[in-house]
Amino acid sequence: MLQKFFYQEKGVFLQSLHPAASMTFIAVLLVQTVIFTHPLYLTGILMVTFLALWAADGLAAWEGYMKAALWMAVLVTAINPLVNHNGNTVLWQGPDLPLFGRPVFTIEAVSYGAAMGVRLLDMVSVFCLFNLIVHPDRFFSLFSAFARRSALAASLATRLFPVMLAAMENIREAQQLRGVDFSKGTLKERAVKNASLFNILLISSLEDSLQVAEAMHARAFGSGSRSRYRRYIFRPRDVLCLAGSIFSLGVSIFSLARGLGSYTYFPELSSFFNNSASLPALAAVLGGLSLPALLSWGCNHCHYLKSKI
What is the pTM of this model? Predict the structure, then answer.
């Protein structure tokens, strides 16, 4: 059940991108989530990430992430007015409490908490997208040219948890075929049954580590210059997605330099669009980010476009 939260080869467009193009797209999304404070920009980034997750056939996994992230976002929105009393527009003022003083709820504090909740949803969605479209081996292969040992260790560590989950499911199914029912018995009996799973998993993991070591030795790892089993080439789709990400990042820097992507919450809420260039800048930022999802939709519905890129 947990396998849907990790990378699975589905043959979708976003998984076919060059690792540099997909990582640039993810990095730009993450940077924009951090640097922007404007609620419309944060909401737009969430919408673009949703489109990319839809294109990557990852809405089921994203729903699982959101079940935990939404509660955290609501908690951030609720706690911020309790500890942040800044703002001129008072919504409610409570009685004077010993040690705590008089609680004051302002619309500015509530709005700021809501914006930070949306930023949290953005961050979780971006990392969900990363897990679904970037293969760990492809990601670390970008760094293997100058840090091959560290990249190999990081790749093995990243693959450890999903591989162990898959092995645990296989061991559980094998035990159930032999008549072991993990749902019956007292608490102690069920604990003993599940403990046996971990013993088998430990032995299986040790055997797998020996197989990995033997495979590395058979391939003469570390004996000379690194060879490549698979070479990733830049195709037109990679150039287009990379150009869209860089364009969006450039417009973001321009927007921040002109004060278009920032938003003032205290002491009073500022206007959403305090400049005539605010809306075009927002459209340009989101347009560049939407290019991978739009290309994915085009390749799914136009075979000519798919053959060209």
Answer: 0.80
